[in-house]
Design a protein that fits this description.
By secondary structure, the chain is mostly beta strands. About 15% of the residues lie in helices and about 45% in strands. Strands 1, 2, 3, 4, 5, 6, 7, 8 and 9 form a nine-stranded antiparallel beta sheet that branches.
Amino acid sequence: MSKATLCLLVALAIAEPALAQGGIAPAQSESEAPIKYAIYSSAWGEPSNAGLRLVAQNQTDHPLKLGSILFSDEDNTAIITSLAIDLTIPAQAWAETEMSYVDLLFGSKCITETMTENWKLVEISNYTLNPSVRGLIIEDTDSFRIYQCVRTVTLNWHDPESGATTELTEWVMYHFERRREF
């Protein structure tokens, strides 16, 4: 190991606690957020002004405050929709909130094509299935079909105990269903 590399590693080891104390958490090495959530809207199935409903589970031993979820366009990352949430979730518990409708059906070729094929969006969640099932019909019977699209989002949460705010880029599943038309 070179002297320059060793100096850089020592500097990073010293800086990491200082960054965390300043309210900025270091990049997470884990690929899953400690908050699992699902977003629903009756507006996805019927023409209405229904809002969004978010149900979230905190899998840690201390409360967390879910701040926002950022949805970026897959082709133009400058196009971003922020779903502002501001929901405190107790330790090892569930919480839910209702909010105004925000269009989350943009910026993904899979989502756009699926919506034009008359599928009904049921939920958006970060815990449904492995992201490798993009575009896979997982059930196909005479009466019912399920289809899923994957996209990445940026999740932002705050830990009131430590004061740290964390952002994590993760995948979410768009879960579509379609009944057989008779």
